[in-house]
Amino acid sequence: MITDAIHAFLLCPTPDAWIDWAEGEPELMLIDHANCEKKAAGTALNLMYRYIDDFELLNKMSRLAREELRHFEQVIAIMQKRGISYKPVSASRYAAELRKPIRTFEPARLIDTLIVGAIIEARSCERFEKLAPKLDDELQKFYLSLLKSEARHFEDYLALAQKAAGDERIDERVQFFLELERSLVEAEDSEFRFHSGVQGQA
Predict the structure, then answer these.
(1) Contact 142/128 with Cβ under 8 angstroms?
(2) In the chain, how many H helices and how many E strands?
(3) What is the DSSP letter of 106?
C-alpha cells in the first residue's frame, strides 16, 4: 500500500475522536484544508528561495509547490460547488509548535525544516486515508487521489534531510520531532483544524 511507509513512520494513528470531530465540521475541514495546501506550497517556495545552490532540492520543491497549488485549486472548486464561503480561520498550533525547536544555524536549520516538512506531509496523508471512508463519494474519491503525491512529498522531504546531513545520521532528530508530533496529535484542542488534536477545552 502507498501508505505503509507512513504508518511505519508516524508514532501514532490519528485518534478516532478527531475523525468524529471532523465529520461534524465538514465546511471548516475544507476551508482549513485549502489553507494547508497554500501553506505547503509556500513552504516549498521559501526553501527554493533560501537554498538556491541545491538543484535536487529546487526541482523537488518546485514540483511539490505546483502539486500543492493544484490541490488548493481542487479544494476551492469543491467549496464553490457546495456554496462554502472561503473565510479566514486561525491556524492550528500544530505546525507552529513543530517548528519551534528548529535550529537556527546551517545546515541544521535546513535539516530540521525538511524533517518537519516530512512529518506534516506524512500526517496529512494518514488523515486523508483515515477520513476518506467517512466522507461522501466526491470527497472520498478526492482524498484518496491525494495519497500518492502526499506520500511522495513525505519521502522527498526525508531524503533531502538526509542528503543535507551528509554522513551524519538524522534518526535521533527525526525521533525527537516525531515524539513532539505525537503529543500534539493526541492533545486536546478547543478549535477544529485539519491538523488539530482531539476535541477538548485546551
Answers:
(1) no
(2) 9, 2
(3) T
CA–CA separation, 59 and 158 (whole Å): 15
φ, ψ (nearest 5 deg) of residue 188: -90, 145
Give the three-class secondary structure for 200: coil
**Residue 40 in contact with residue 13, Cβ under 8 Å?**
no
- Give the separation between CA 116 and CA 122, rounded to whole angstroms: 10
Q: What is the pTM of this model?
A: 0.96
CA pair distance 141, 7, nearest whole angstrom: 21
pLDDT tens digits, one per residue of 124-165:
999 999 999 999 999 999 999 999 999 999 999 999 999 999
CA distance 88 to 189: 19
83: left (phi over 0), alpha (psi -120 to 50) or beta: left
Alpha-carbon distance 165 to 168, whole Å?
A: 5
User: 99 is written with which cell numbers?
Assistant: 517548528
Q: Which residue has the cell 524533517?
A: 115
Q: Are 86 and 33 in contact (CB under 8 A)?
A: no
Closest of 194, 202, 198 to residue 71, by C-alpha: 194
- As a whole number of angstroms, the distance between CA 61 and CA 157 comes to 9
